[in-house]
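Board notes (copied after class):
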Amino acid sequence: MLFNYNTLKVILDTSTRSIKVFLNRPEDNNRLNIEMLFELEGLASWLTSHLEVNSVVISSETDEFCSGFDLNELKIMSDEKRYKYLARFQRVIQSYKALPQTIICDLRNGASSMGIELALAADIRLINKEGQLNFNFLKEAWVPMCGGISLLAELVGKSNAWQWVLSSKKVESDRLINSGFVLDYSDSCDELMKTISEQSPVARIQAKRAFYDTVHKQFDESIHFDTACAQASMKTDDWRLENEDSEEFTAARDFSTNVKTNYTNTPHM
C-alpha cells in the first residue's frame, strides 16, 4: 500500500494522474489533531518529489469538510507543545500553497473555524449550493492565524473578510461564489481533475508559481502579525470554554493586564 494513514484516506486516480485525499475522522467532524497534521505534512513532502501528479483534491466523505481543531487534544498539551502544534498547522497551509500540483478543496456542505483556514491552502475551492461556511473563529476564541485574515482579504476583498470574521457570520454559498472564494458544484472535482490533466505540466506549474509569488511575500509577513495576535488571545484560555455563547470570557480590561505581564514570554511559532 502506497499510503497508510490513520486520519486520511488517499485514493490514486491514474486516469488523470491525480490524488483524492479524504479527511477521515468522521467521529469528530473531521477536527484537526496532531496526527492529521503530521500526515498532511508527510503527504505534502511526498508530493514535492512527484511532479507527475497533476492535482490533489482534499475533501471529506461526510457532509462537513472540517470543523476546526480537536480542542480535547489541545487542552492536555503544554503551552510549548501547543505552540509547536499551531506552528505545524501554519507550515501545512504554507506547504500546500507552494506545491507544484493544483490543489482543489471540496468543502462539501461547509466548514467552520480553522477548517476554513485549511481550505485556504487550496488553489481552487468548491462548495455545495446548499453549503455555508461558519466564520465562528471569535466565538471559539481563536484569532485566525494562517491566512484567515490577510489571505482571505486578498481573495475576497478586505470588506468581506472584515465583516465575515468580526461578525462570526455563517456565509451562504451564493455569497461565497459571488465573492470568488469558491466555485459551485457545476464544476465537479472529476471535471476539474480531467481539465487539469489536459494542461501542459510545465505551464501549469509555472502559472501556479507566478500566482504564488504575487502573494507569498505579503502572506509570510502578515503571518507574523497574525501569530502575535493569536498568541496574545490564547493567554486568556477562553478557547478552553465549551460553550460558544459563554459569558465567562475574559474581560478586555483584564486581558490588557495579562498581556503586559505575560506576552513578552510567549514562545514564537
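Comment from the instructor: The domain at 8-197 is CATH 3.90.226.10 (2-enoyl-CoA Hydratase; Chain A, domain 1). The beta strands are 8-13, 18-23, 55-60, 102-106, 110-112, 124-127, 132-134, 170-172, 183-184.
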